[in-house]
Automatic annotation (TrEMBL), chain A:
Gene Ontology CC terms, in alphabetical order: plasma membrane
Gene Ontology terms for molecular function: ATP binding; ATP hydrolysis activity
Protein location: Cell inner membrane
The species this protein was found in: Belnapia rosea
Alphabetical list of Pfam families matching this protein: ABC_tran, oligo_HPY
Xref: InterPro entries: AAA+_ATPase, ABC_Ni/Peptide_Import, ABC_transporter-like_ATP-bd, Oligopep_ABC_C, P-loop_NTPase
Record's protein name: Peptide/nickel transport system ATP-binding protein
Automatic annotation (TrEMBL), chain B:
Cited SMART domains: AAA
Name of protein: Peptide/nickel transport system ATP-binding protein
NCBIfam families per UniProt: oligo_HPY (TIGR01727)
Single GO cellular component term: plasma membrane
Family: Belongs to the ABC transporter superfamily.
Chain residue ranges for the region called Disordered: 325-347
UniProt keyword annotations, A-Z: ATP-binding, Nucleotide-binding, Transport
Single annotated GO MF: ATP hydrolysis activity
Originating species: Belnapia rosea
Domain ABC transporter: 7-257
One Pfam family, short name: oligo_HPY
Membrane topology field: Peripheral membrane protein
Compartment(s): Cell inner membrane
Any one GO biological process: transmembrane transport
């Protein structure tokens, strides 16, 4: 890979003794679309909140996050202010609570334009109108004067995306951007994110619990479990040859669209509590293949193939001749 | 003589008055607009649609938690008694509801065992306390919890365990009908699979009929024997899950199916323009026509009926799918897709 846009090394986060992230290594190339998949509490959102310095003070963060070679973890507020919303933008699950309900949307988009591009007055309004147009809001000129409550959930998410584009970001982090939306609206937003990426060349990190959403939007996927990345591969490869038992479990838990209906291969049990992390591999207590060796140490990610890594002892064993 | 189906709803209609703005005139919103459905014993009917389509209200009407403004519900061949009366209460023991958010459905200050025992006390099941405790233990085992977990409080359980506790409580009175309103939406993927497996297994063991309300077509296919697709208060298509999923007849069902994100699926999505319309501003004719890629002139004027389609008998409410009008050419439908999206005025 060429020089990555973002390189995360050994990122760890700890909330008062409870580990939320336990060493994340992740690289995003310029223009790439990466999916981050996992269940609630696995640390997929915390990774980006930590990287951008958005976690509350009691969180202990360590490791390294480099943006185009420059360290941004623990950087000065002035540096972070240029990065956040500028070079790296983030959108969240619930657009209605991310927008200010008492300001017109045009003013909110213009505020982002003022902060990141120094645009004011008529120029800012014209650019805000262009952005609303770009994200597919019909009648953008008049919609500038609408309040968030006058728009639907899908339209509000489009406004959030317009605000994120205001800083002309090199990377857009979308944290469950369609989870609060209906399926037909979800399809519209995913289509829009793909089109914007083609137009602007920005990289995209799509955080989702839905493997299907990631499969349709991203080129590469990282699967997270209990604060670590357990498997990483190109999308087609991950679905064709999932290696980590957790990934296999997630795929097996998805109801199929055709074929006979049989019980789903549900993963037994539930995610471990941060204070009660099992020794060794965190997935071992739920894993159908767990062996004594799994409790001895946290497995490191190993390359199963070029561009495909899994953090499982079995992945290594499968590489060895029988 | 034909045995009456377990549940038969005819022409259910529920209207609400909604005020627009602080001093606005109240407008009538038809949340459910003439829904008829039948559910046989031990079977599952999946009710799918997007938010605001009236699927949850339909579930509440069926249970008698709300009274319909028009239409009727018959349970085991008997009309629904007036709410609050002793016969109504007796009937309510035979039908139970499971909600989306298990933490909200459980009382945080009560151990789950006591909560599961509560319906037994209310409906006078089990003469002695020991008998009831035995039943609670059996129910906990039924849903995959351990009897010793009866003393746990909701916050001490995981999301999946809480939903199991809610299910155990719903099953306490041995109901013939379970209305599950988005029972898995608040759960993680791996836990969703556990709960779906549990529902199917309990049904095969206890013979409970299930009305499964969900926005998730995949989940509906997994658990249902029949599926009904709702749009703006009406059923627009009904049939076997595989038939509806693999060959949807109604253009809305087609869009809904094509919007299911699926790993490794190459086919193009049908993108609908705009948002579901506001129920207070119901479009004329077919309510779907402003977003429909194949709508023709008649669709804006005449309301299509839900009826069996000639040929395969699929129940669908669409002039085009019924073959009453020729389907428009591809060019026409492409032009239709480029129409500006509608903006919902819902407050």
């Amino acid at each position: 890979m060429s020089e990555p846009l973002v390189a995360i090394r050994g990122l760890a986060v700890d909330f008062g003794g409870a580990p939320a992230l336990r060493g994340i290594d992740l690289a995003i190339a310029p223009g790439e679309a990466l999916g981050l998949v996992g269940e609630s509490g696995c640390g997929k959102s915390v990774t980006w909140l930590a990287a951008l310095g958005l976690l509350p003070g009691r969180a202990r963060v360590s490791g390294s996050v480099r943006l185009a070679g420059e360290e941004i973890l623990g950087a000065a507020p002035a540096v972070l202010d240029r990065v956040r919303g500028g070079r790296v933008a983030m959108i969240f699950q619930d657009p209605a609570s991310s927008l200010n309900p008492v300001h017109r949307i045009g003013r909110q988009v213009a505020e982002a334009l003022g902060l990141h591009r120094g645009l004011r007055g008529v120029a800012a309004r014209a650019e805000a109108r262009r952005l609303l147009d770009q994200v597919g809001i019909p009648d953008a000129g008049r919609r500038l004067d609408a309040y968030p409550h006058e728009l639907s959930g899908g339209q509000n998410q489009r406004v959030m995306i317009a605000m994120a584009l205001a800083g002309q970001p090199e990377l857009l982090v979308a944290d469950e951007p369609t989870t609060a939306l209906d399926v037909t609206i979800q399809a519209q937003i995913l289509e829009l994110l793909g089109a914007l990426r083609r137009e602007t060349g920005m990289a995209l990190v799509l955080i989702s619990h839905d493997l299907g959403v990631v499969a349709e939007t991203c080129e590469r996927v990282a699967v997270m479990y209990a604060g670590r990345i357990v498997e990483e591969a190109r999308v087609a490869r991950l679905f064709a040859a999932p290696t980590h038992p957790y990934t296999q479990g997630l795929l097996g838990a998805l109801p199929p669209l055709d074929g006979p209906r049989r019980p789903l291969s549900a993963i037994p049990g539930s995610v471990p509590e941060p204070n009660g992390m099992p020794p060794g591999c965190a997935f071992a207590p739920r894993c159908p293949h767990a062996a004594a060796a799994c409790a001895l140490g946290v497995p490191e990610a190993v390359a199963v193939e070029p561009d495909h890594a899994a953090a499982c002892l079995r992945a290594v064993r499968e590489l060895l001749p029988a | 003589m034909r045995k009456a189906p377990l549940l038969e709803a005819m022409g259910l209609t529920r209207r609400y008055a909604m005020r627009r703005g602080f001093l606005g005139r109240p407008v009538e919103v038809r949340a459910v607009d003439g829904v008829s459905l039948t559910l046989e014993r031990g079977r599952t009917l999946g009710l799918v649609g997007e938010s605001g389509c009236g699927k949850s209200t339909t579930g509440r009407l069926v249970l008698g938690l709300e009274m319909p403004d028009a239409g009727s519900v018959a349970f085991e061949g008997q009309p629904m008694p007036a709410p609050g009366t002793p016969p109504w209460r007796a009937m309510r023991a035979r039908m139970q509801m499971v909600f989306q958010d298990p933490l909200g459905a459980l009382d945080r200050r009560m151990a789950i065992g006591a909560q599961i025992a509560e319906p037994l006390e209310i409906h006078g099941i089990g003469a002695r306390r020991a008998e009831r405790m035995e039943r609670v233990a059996a129910l906990l085992r039924d849903v995959g919890l351990r009897p010793d977990q009866a003393v746990r409080y909701p916050h001490e359980l995981s999301g999946g365990q809480r939903q199991r506790a809610v299910l155990a409580r719903a099953l306490a009175t041995d109901p013939a009908l379970l209305v599950c309103d988005e029972p898995i939406s608040a759960l993680d993927v791996s836990i969703q699979a556990q709960v779906m497996n549990l529902l199917v297994e309990l049904q095969s063991r206890l013979g409970t009929a299930i009305l499964f309300v969900s926005h998730d077509l995949r989940a509906v296919r997994q658990v249902s024997h029949r599926v009904a697709v709702m749009y703006l208060g009406r059923i627009v298509e009904e049939g076997e899950p595989d038939a509806v999923l693999h060959d949807p007849a109604h253009p809305y069902a087609q869009a809904l199916v094509s919007a299911i994100p699926h790993p490794g699926r190459g086919q193009r999505r049908i993108l609908l323009q705009g948002d579901p319309p506001n129920p207070a501003d119901r479009p004329s004719g077919c309510a779907f026509h402003p977003r429909c890629p194949v709508a023709v002139a008649i669709c804006a004027k005449e309301d299509p009926m839900l009826k069996p389609r000639p040929g395969d008998g699929r129940r669908v409410a669409c002039h085009v799918a019924q073959g009453e009008v020729p389907a428009p050419s591809v060019g026409r439908s492409a032009a239709g897709l480029n129409r500006p999206a509608q903006i919902s005025k819902a407050a």
